[in-house]
Amino acid sequence: MQTAKHHEEKIDRALQADVAAHDFVAASWQRSANVHRLEPCRTHAPHRLSADEFKQACERLGPLVDTAQTSLDRLYQAVGCDGCCVLLADRNGIPVDRRGAAGDDVTFKEWGLWTGTVWSESHEGTNGIGTSIVEERALTIHMDQHFHVKNTGLSCSAAPIFDHEGNLIAVLDVSSCRSDMSAGFSRLVSMTVLDAARQIEAAHFEYKFSDARIVLANAPQDFGRAHCGQQGVSLVAVDRDDMVVGATRAARRLFGLNDDDLKKPLPLSLLYGQQVNDASQYSQAGRRTILQALARQNGNVSAAARALGVSRATLHRKIKYLKIDC
User: Which CATH entry fits the domain spanning 278-322: 1.10.3470, 1.10.10, 2.70.98, 2.40.30?
Assistant: First the structure.
């Protein structure tokens, strides 16, 4: 950890050079100093919520905490070690769940890397969780990139998580106080954190649309290639009639969708600009229904007709018309 005076001088030089326009760290330093009126060398204890305030923060996240459990476990197994912890924070920068080695608990509690503390930029200045919230993207704040000198011993990699309507709902973070944490290794951790955040985002989307079919969406020119990087996972939820009922933030951006678009009937085919022959679509839908009914009845036409609510003769005529082998 560098000296307080050296760190303060470094921030002052960056702010005077006005490099914030092309440097997100300098932009965050500028917000910390000019908007939040924080001082780099000011020493203060982490801001901790009361038990009731923390309970309310957890309740606001709803089922996301439960759907994130598997991803949190896997992330900690992948990057967790002595001196590292995994934090799931809400959009206000409040960690609501964490993973860490028991031997580090005392250290991390003192540092504030614990549930119920506040890591927004307005409280802690430039840091992984708070700056990821503001920037709405994955990033790493490595050691002396932190605003407060007391946090310059940390390396924090964070990634935002967006809800089923495309709004930022949480942030996933891996923080380390290891002195041997290099910038290069931090970048590898950042990629792992981003992948885990996208897994949580997808699981939350699937939970919210549990009655729908989930489709991995691609741009028309990119069929077969998944879009799941910085922008998120491109998923679309469709109902039994192949009408779009939901889309992730990445899918909304991919297809130019907004909330109003999703309130109206929207065929999945329309997203890809496909010209659909309604008569052909009806015919194919009928064929699919009959094939499925026959399969469920082991090829028995009479039983399939009863299941479909039509006469055996009517079903036979439809089978003949659609040239279905049975």
Answer: 1.10.10
> Which DSSP helix (H) or strand (E) runs through 202?
helix 183-208
Q: d(Cα 160, Cα 173) in Å, to the nearest integer? A: 9
Cβ atoms of 248 and 233 within 8 Å: the answer is: yes
pTM: 0.80
User: CB count, 10 Å around CB of 281?
Assistant: 13
- Dmax (CA) for the chain in angstroms is 91
The class (CATH top level) of 4-207 is alpha beta
Whole-number Cα distances in Å, 150 to 12, 40, 45, 95, 128: 17, 8, 10, 19, 14
Angle subtended at Cα 140 by Cα 139 and Cα 146, rounded to the nearest 5 degrees: 120
Reported as a single tens digit per residue, the pLDDT across 102-122 is 999 999 999 999 999 999 999
pLDDT tens track for 275-316? 444 445 445 557 777 887 887 788 899 998 888 888 888 888
Measure CA 67 to chain center.
12
Q: Where in the chain is the domain with CATH 3.30.450.40?
A: 4-207
DSSP secondary structure, 224-277, as one string: T----STT---EEEE-TTSBEEEE-HHHHHHHT--HHHHHS--BHHHHTT----
Tokens of 52: 């009731």
Report the amino acid identity of residue 294.
L
Ranges for all domains in the chain classified under CATH 1.10.10: 278-322
Separation of alpha carbons 171 and 196, rounded Å: 11
